[in-house]
Design brief:
By secondary structure, the protein is mostly helical. Helix content is 68%, strand content 0%. It contains six helices and no strands. The radius of gyration is 27 Å and the shape is flat. The model has no long low-confidence stretch (mean pLDDT 78).
Length: 136
């Protein structure tokens, strides 16, 4: 019985040594050629302009969360579809309930207007006109 725990201990020790060895080798071999561009906030080819505390549109987060929710839930459909013929009518009804819950969620998000990337509300138009008049 102690032999099995010994294997786990040896595996953990070898794993830790592997990590330490690779970190040490990378620290010894890497080049230290830093330019001024290395220290700017964004290394994506875009020059940072203005303050870093800008108003970030929350629709990016909302769209990403909606995508993630529906994407993860649709993953449950694949195993169900593979064994569809073997599971019977009860599982079919359960999946219909599951899909209907997804459709209710989609209808709610759609009715709320969160799927529209650009919202044309009067408030946004007024704030845009105010910003343009401030710039002039």
């Amino acid at each position: 019985m102690h032999f099995n725990f010994g294997n786990v201990l040896i595996f953990l020790i070898v794993g830790c040594l592997f990590v330490v060895l690779n970190l040490t080798i990378s620290r010894l071999l890497h080049t230290k050629l830093f330019s001024g561009e290395k220290y700017i906030p964004y290394e994506c080819g875009e020059d940072p302009i203005g303050d870093t505390r800008i108003k970030f549109n929350s629709r990016f987060y909302v769209i990403a969360l909606i995508f993630l929710i529906f994407d993860v839930e649709v993953v449950f459909l694949l195993p169900w579809a593979v064994v569809f013929r073997d599971i019977g009518v009860l599982a079919f009804v359960e999946m219909l309930v599951f899909i209907s819950i997804l459709l209710v969620g989609l209808a709610y998000v759609w009715a709320k207007g969160d799927l529209e990337w650009i919202r044309s509300t009067q408030l946004e138009v007024q704030s845009f006109q105010r910003e343009e008049s401030d710039d002039n």
